[in-house]
Amino acid sequence: MSEQISERSLSQQFRLGGLSIPRWLAVAVVGIVALAAGAYVARGTLEPSPVGHDAAALLGVSLPDLDGREQRLDQWRGKVLVVNFWATWCAPCREEMPQFVKTQTALGAQGLQFVGIAVDQGDKIKQFATEIGLNYPTLVGGMGAMQLSKTLGNDLMALPFTVIVGRDGRIVHTQLGPLKQAQLDSIVAKLL
Amino acid sequence: MRPDALAGVFGGLLGAVALVAVAAGVPGLTAKLLPPEQAFRFSARTLDPATVEARFDVADGYYLYRDKLRFSVEGGAPALGVATLPAGKRKHDEFFGDVETYRGLVVVRVPVVDARAGQPLVLVADSQGCADAGVCYPPNQQQVRLAMPTAGAGAGPLVEANPRKGLFN
Questions:
Q1: How far is A62 from A76, CA to CA, in rounded Å?
Q2: Which of A9, A23, A88 is the best residue to mutate to test the B interface, defined by the most B CB atoms within 10 Å of its own CB?
Q3: What ipTM was assigned to the predicted interfaces of this complex?
Q4: How many other CB atoms sit within 10 Å of the CB of residue B164?
């Protein structure tokens, strides 16, 4: 079947708006398009990168805090917002959070705001929050929060996953896995 | 074949090869981390009318938590006895205290109580693990469907929970 199609399409030059295109060029273009499509398919298995897009979907989310009060993320619109998805069952999450506490202390006055979204049980979250002296809000998410993180590019729905939103409400950075202090500092410095 | 036709066919072939290579996952373009069902491959087989063998084949660079491993049967029948989990590698966790982790192949014998020959058994495994790269996966559930054997039939075939993923799925 492909033999017939190629015979038919290769047997004459392609005509485009009165222009004659050599068939080798036409087929090469098809090849390049196929390459681009292949790259798109491969990347398409991941969610499209949300970086540069408006964080409206994230900022519109409302989740309960540790006291059970609903908190909308857009209350922090206008700040440099670092949203960190975490859980106590995730050791790498717990390891990076004391850094976040220090950074919140150091840069909070300049407009940096961390918000945790915990995919976990309230008692465990409270226990760990107390242990590290958590100084920023953490909301209680459950598996629905995992789905939310997936829409933000966390295709594997693994933790930790962190989203940095600029003052203009645009997503600047997303990260699966620990965020190194130097990396966090350099991203945030440009936004404050 | 005329040279320009040859070039055209070559261009087309190059595109097709590139399409397949890129879709198959050239390193650097696709995520390096495995999805949990591939990082923690679950399979099981029947050993005899009173025992199933559950296996986790943990990919290099990944580990499972021993205390998060649970086995159950869908529908509750036949009933399972208490599985003896092998010892893991102990490590100290600042929040949870001493924990044990599994790497490589984990084999667990799970007793089955009062099973009839030919009775279907859907073995459900709950697990939770992480990658050394610094991420953890949420608690995950996998299952395999087995049929309980008659006495003396020997071990049944190993049934995988998730077949290997093909090129386009």
A1: 12
A2: A23
A3: 0.74
A4: 7
Average pLDDT, chain A: 84
Quick check: B4 and A24 CB within 8 A? yes
Residues paired with A84 in a beta bridge: A116, A162
Q: Enumerate the residues of chain A whose CB falls inside 8 A of the CB of residue B25.
A: 42
Do you find a cis peptide bond into B78, omega within 30 degrees of 0?
A: yes
Map residue A17 onto helix, strand or coil: coil
Is the overall model pTM greater than 0.80, yes or no? no
Query: Kind of pairing, strands A80-86 and A112-118?
Result: parallel
Name which of B16, B130, B135 is nearest A176 (Cβ-Cβ).
Answer: B135
Q: Which residue carries 């014998």 as its tokens? A: B109
Per-residue pLDDT tens digits for B127-158: 999 999 999 999 999 999 999 999 999 999 99
Beta bridge partners, A114, equal A82
Interchain pair B13, A31: CB under 8 A: yes
CATH 1.10.150.130 matches A56-191: no
Give kind and range of the element (H or E) at residue B47. strand B40-48
Which pLDDT band holds residue B21 (cuts at 50, 70, 90)? very low
Alpha carbon distance B105, B101 (integer Å): 12
A-contacting residues of B 8-27, CB under 8 Å? Answer: 8-9, 11-16, 18-23, 25-26
Residue of B nearest to A12 (CA): B5
Interchain pair A156, B7: CB under 8 A: no
Q: Judge whether B16 and A34 are in contact, CB under 8 Å.
A: yes
CA atoms in the 13 A half-sphere facing the CB of A95: 14
Q: Residue A107 above 60 pLDDT?
A: yes
Total Cβ atoms within 10 A of residue B4: 15
Residue B19: its H or E element: helix B3-25
Contacts of A135 (CB under 8 A, 6+ apart): A101, A104, A105
Q: Pick B22 or B34 by higher pLDDT.
A: B34
